[in-house]
């Protein structure tokens, strides 16, 4: 063990004497620190802006004057997705999925205001966040600092000298890995500070912040072990560098991009236009509440008349138009729910493709674990959209219920021709204040931790593989004479 420390110290001193190594480490630390600070500031401002916007939109809804309830159905309101608990570390899909949904009757709108919705997919590669720095840039720095660690000793003929001093192949590789691990810890430090700061501000997130930190430590450890192993196997420093750069391009760039493309082709998601056309066709088939002769709603009317023992809708103990609106909203909302569920299944299958691609790329595994832990993953976005739809349906049905119970059917039928009847159909603005406000809470830390397990297991396999390759490199080095 003493020789391991000695070799590690010598390697670190060599790095310190190298201006290129110092510039690389300092540059990465600066980038990581800048990413941590700017991301934290941006997310704090975003969280405050969204919370304030939600308060204001709720107040605007409640401040509406006396109106017909159905006008409030179309006036609508907004649901804003809160910022994830650890989004400052890893914003995940937030910039691409949209964060604001307009909620109104008869429609299920998509989330809007995704920062990069109209941008090229290549922009995803360039987001400067602590997670991006660790996933993409830190391995590259480790490669440039560690590719020649063992290969350089072979080229200089110093491996035999080390062996003559009692250094085994395992000691040599262990010392080189330890030195490179120190650099990895330095690269990890600003991100750890960012995670620690988030955990201090939200103590209930401390446990999952620690798990995320360990996941990235394991990811960088796999790179450290792999880099030293390749340096020990390669005949020359140049060969080691070429092999490692190719591995980085494959693991960090090509496999994630190819996996996303293959998932989209293998399990394509219908476009929003196609979905809306399909829903419109289904609505025409199931029933149109605006068509008095529609079979479904004619049967609905007959059922109500029979149930209450009357022959005219005017004799019902409630406003038939409100009941009709409730039934129409029930049908359309069920269609929305069905189509959304189908789309969610497709998205989950696509995510499954990416999850399995983690077998080929630890970058995908650590990215998935990071987004899940930060509550900025696709599952959290889907949960928000489902919560927004459930709230929309409840709000619209409450308003339709007010039309059925608080508005006279006679006045409702005459309001387009009789100004006085129109005035009587406008109910008190106090009713708007009784409507519930939209709330959404991210999945609990325990639920997110459970969801991280598959990605963490894949990452663990990569670490085990890296140890295995390092052991093989040590045996090969022993056979050829260290």
From TrEMBL:
Transmembrane residue ranges: 132-151, 177-200, 206-229, 241-266, 451-474
InterPro entries the record matches: DUF3526
The name this protein goes by in its record: ABC transporter permease
Keywords of this entry: Membrane, Transmembrane, Transmembrane helix
Pfam families xrefs: ABC2_membrane_2, DUF3526
Signal peptide: none
Top-rank lineage group of the source organism: Bacteria
Transcription regulation among keywords: no
